[in-house]
Write a structure and sequence with these properties.
Layout (H helix, E strand, L loop, with lengths): L2 H4 L1 H7 L8 E5 L7 H10 L3 E5 L4 H6 L3 H10 L3 E6 L5 H10 L5 H13 L7 E5 L6 E6 L2 E6 L11 E5 L6 H15 L1 E2 L3
């Protein structure tokens, strides 16, 4: 007999079933996720990397030589995409009022745009503007992703984060990936 038959409650409390099987780890705060996890995901990705955070500012601060690492990824055939908010949009301005911090949302986006400007001529690296992901950041690395649903007036690093791994069709990973794909398609190119 299998364990589920002998100890149904015990098995259900230990074994993940359904959509929760794709949850590798849950963090109460984005910055509770070790930078080593981010580094491993970036370094292991070979097909695609997408940074769909509204500012993506923190990745440049927390990951040494990120530009060089992403350029090397792109050169080896990995697609590298950034979806960022428009620093001059009304959505950004309203978010700045809510956050009320000296390092404004627009400034954080401009720091990312400055870093990306040094990579814009690299084949395989692309960036688009979208203001529709202001409350959700999705960072994908091949078949794994880190997702942060932003809470109210909190800053991104204060919001929770899920580490997901794709295990099948139409699971949590696919739901978030589909959302980012739609935003990407509707986004405006950063570089004309």
């Amino acid at each position: 007999m299998d364990e589920g038959m002998l100890w149904p409650r015990s098995a259900k409390s230990v074994v993940k079933t359904g959509a929760s099987r794709e949850i590798v780890q849950a963090y109460p705060y984005r910055n509770a996720c070790p930078t080593s996890v981010w580094g491993q995901l970036i370094d292991a990705a070979s097909h695609s990397i997408t940074f769909a955070g509204y500012t993506n500012y923190f990745v440049w601060q927390e990951h040494p030589r990120l530009s060089e690492r992403l350029a090397a990824k792109a050169e080896s055939g990995c697609s590298v995409r950034f979806l960022v908010g428009d620093p001059d949009s009304e959505v950004t301005r309203r978010r700045e009022e809510i956050e009320g911090v000296p390092l404004t949302v627009g400034t954080r986006i401009k720091i990312t745009l400055d870093a990306l400007s040094k990579l814009k001529d690299k084949a395989g690296i692309d960036a688009r503007f979208s203001d529709e992901h202001i409350a959700l950041s999705v960072f994908s690395f091949d078949s794994e992703m880190l997702v942060t649903p932003h809470l109210s007036s909190l800053l991104g690093h204060e919001s929770p984060m899920l580490h997901l791994r794709r295990l099948g069709d139409d699971g949590l990973y696919d739901r978030f990936a589909s959302h980012v794909s739609a935003l990407w398609e509707g986004g405006r190119p950063v570089w004309e």
